[in-house]
Design goal:
The protein is of the alpha+beta class and 216 residues long. It has one domain: Glutaredoxin, CATH 3.40.30.10. Strands 1-5-4-2-3 form a five-stranded mixed β-sheet, with helices on both faces. Helix 2 crosses helix 8, helix 3 crosses helix 7 and helix 5 packs antiparallel against helix 6. The protein is globular, with a radius of gyration of 17 Å. The chain starts with 24 loop residues before the first helix and ends with a helix.
Length: 216
Amino acid sequence: MFKRLSLLLVGLSLATACTAGGADPAAAAAPYTDGQQYVATTTPARLDPKNGKVEVVEVFSYACIHCAHYEPKVEELQKQLPKGVVFHAVPAAFNDAWLPFAQAYYAAKKLGALPSTHAALFKAIHEEHYPLNTLDELGDWYAQHGVDKAKFLAAAKSTETRDQILADTKLLQGWGIDGTPTIVVDGKYRSAQIKDFDELNGLTKFLVDRELKGGK
């Protein structure tokens, strides 16, 4: 379902097949199967190790049409997560073409513009087909949404943003991320062979509930 892309620092492939679980009692008790709908991360690590809450991370890109389609569903997911759970979004810079979108995300976050621009940028790219491929073009778009272009470009090109994207890339490699959108729970498990976004949300809530119960 999801597009194959190359990671900025290492090649990755996206698994898209969906397999159905058997009708045995174990499958009935656990609707999602390790090795099918989800897998353990290659190197378990939390995005924010200092926060004791169960952590849900969406790995996405504004350039990914599947992420655009998932956006309404991930908004639903955030509202459905119980107390004791924290949600984060991490923009993937899988290649040079995706890098400006990761820079734009962190610039908008720094400038407090994410709430008003996050979903709108998906729409501009994938529904309205704005030519938004460079930081300069993105700067013009953000300026139309009340963001000072000079401040946007300065934040997007800052050392802080560069270092964050490099740290993200290392973390995604450690998680074994192979496409977007991918959900990672507590740095331990990531979504794998998912047939649709409802299943992705259901899997996330299943893993969250298990982590809240101590991983059982």
